[in-house]
Amino acid sequence: MKIRTFIAVDVPENIKEKIFEVEKELIKSAGEGVKWESKEKFHITLKFLGDVNEEAIDSIYDVLSKSLTGFGKFSINYKGVGVFPDLKKPRVIWVGCEDPSGKLFDLQKIVEDKMSEFGFEKEEKEFHPHITLGRVKNPKNLGGLIKKIESINFEAGAGEVAEILIMKSDLKPSGSVYTVLRKIKL
């Protein structure tokens, strides 16, 4: 059986709360054209794998566990609100992550390299750590939302990264549902 899989960093609960408060502010000025993520789904994607054979999950876990032995915990700052690709044509609304130590980028590179050994294509785009808040479904009437994004000076503070997660994503009519398959301590 195939499992839609990605590798991620969870967001600490206290930070999720602060991000959710900002999301609620954005929702007020957004209109109907945005599909917003629930607070429980806030995460930083390190690598989207797509459909993976269920039997491969244990091997992926083993390789990542060995590769990350001794990597160690670190902190990142959750700060800023923005959009991809730009404010003229917003498709994804996000909260940013600042990585003063560079360890989040190191972690993502290890994951990327190890997954390429399994045959997953390397991501061509530069890694831009973020938490997705919403996806624009209808770009009309977003003026208020754009103004709000431009005016927000968001800073949730630092949060510890102590593990990475191998996640399953089930697509449902109501939206995707995430389940943790494995946890790898750093």
From TrEMBL:
Keyword annotations from UniProtKB, A to Z: Hydrolase, Ligase
Pfam family, one: LigT_PEase
Species the sequence originates in: Candidatus Chryseopegocella kryptomonas
Keyword Hydrolase: yes
Similarity comment: family membership: Belongs to the 2H phosphoesterase superfamily. ThpR family.
EC number: 3.1.4.58
All residue ranges annotated as the Phosphoesterase HXTX domain in the record: 9-94, 98-178
HAMAP family: RNA_CPDase (MF_01940)
Protein name as it appears in the record: RNA 2',3'-cyclic phosphodiesterase
GO MF assignments: 2',3'-cyclic-nucleotide 3'-phosphodiesterase activity; ligase activity; RNA 2',3'-cyclic 3'-phosphodiesterase activity
Motif HXTX 1 boundaries: 43-46
Reaction catalyzed: a 3'-end 2',3'-cyclophospho-ribonucleotide-RNA + H2O = a 3'-end 2'-phospho-ribonucleotide-RNA + H(+)
Class of enzymatic activity (EC top level): hydrolase
Summary of the function given for this chain in its UniProt record: Hydrolyzes RNA 2',3'-cyclic phosphodiester to an RNA 2'-phosphomonoester.
Annotated active site: 43, 130
Extent of motif HXTX 2: 130-133
